[in-house]
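[agent] plan:
  1. take the single chain provided in the ticket
  2. run structure prediction with default settings
  3. attach structure tokens to the ticket
  4. add a short note for the reviewer (M.T.)
[agent] executing step 1
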Amino acid sequence: MSRAWTDEQRTAHSGALKVSKQQAPPVVQTVGLTKIFRDFWYRPRVKAVDNLDLEIRPGEVFGLLGPNGSGKSTTIKILLGLLYPTRGRVAVFGRAPTDVAIKDRIGYLPEESYLYRFLDARETLDYYGRLFQLPRPDRRRRVEELLRMVGLEREARRRVGEYSKGMARRIGLAQALINDPDLLILDEPTTGLDPIGTAQIKELIVELNRRHGKTVLLSSHLLADVEDVCTRICILYGGRQQALGNTKELLSRRELTQITAEKLEPATIERIRSVIAESENKRVLSVSAPSDRLEAFFIRIVREAEQRRQTTSGAAGGGGLPGFLGARAGEGGDVIESLVSAARSAATPAPEAAPSGAPAPQPERAVIEQLVSRPESAEPSSAVADRRETPTAPTPPPPADPSVIEALLAKPPDEDKG
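[agent] step 2 finished; step 3 output follows
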């Protein structure tokens, strides 16, 4: 079942964000952002974004909502540096969106997954890892962890062009996380996904934010998904901001009071109605039994089928979050280095004490003596075979020629420059 935000968790998270607002600069900030598309004669044709003031703080899941043509995708493209604003100021991590220095801190899942059709899933993720100049061992590890996360391990060798739309969205989410971004921008991430995939994506968003402190900008038409994961939302219409604030506060109906109790008898309900009418001069609007959400019921049925190990050719249930997400350089490095150093010191024998008054041998001399010391003639193959049958004590190599060692240790004279 999807781990959606409860009211208590959302309230606690919002309170923590209010405290952190005064300590950290915003991840995204727009002031008077305006974008006007013009025709061939440079006449104003469409005002996609109109004087938008927006601020996204570190560690929050921010929802950008609105009907088609309200300016959501245009705003996202401006934040990515794909479009230039007509007026206003835009800053991402305190820099201009076109600054290359911030690109490796951003992960982006576009509304349509533009993938190379003739590459398989592993090749696709490896390609994006190369774009971020990740070392080969890191790429391999991240690719396998991401494939496990999105449930495409069994289909990793199929060409991406053969994937369904939902499977393409899964591999698109994996490529958006290959660089372990600080800001994750998701444009309609659950489009084309089945209810299982939708629940997994929502769970991943919550875990990325809660456990790893990722800042997420989510744009979606599925309002139930946004309600489950977002801490703050902004609603656009006609390119202008219509509503902005905490999700719970915006959705609360303060003119109504809701009471949930265990099952009551009809006579008890009638007495409650009478008490409310006499004491408050109000009436009870409705009395009904609560029901599960269809999403929760659907997921429970599919999970039971998975436990029975029924075969399927589609995407499987994904695993947990990859271990590399949120593991920044320097975090835990001292502990790891101390463990490695302790293991090395335990495996390395202590050097023998040198005689008193004798100078310590130079490391270079010891290495060179080992390299130039060799037997005068190589053993024939028959001698090797005899030695295998009859073990004998090893013969120490003859001492190296001192003149050869001195010649190798001698530093070449400085060459004239010019």
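[agent] step 4 note for reviewer: The CA atoms of residues 169 and 389 lie 64 Å apart.
[agent] ticket updated
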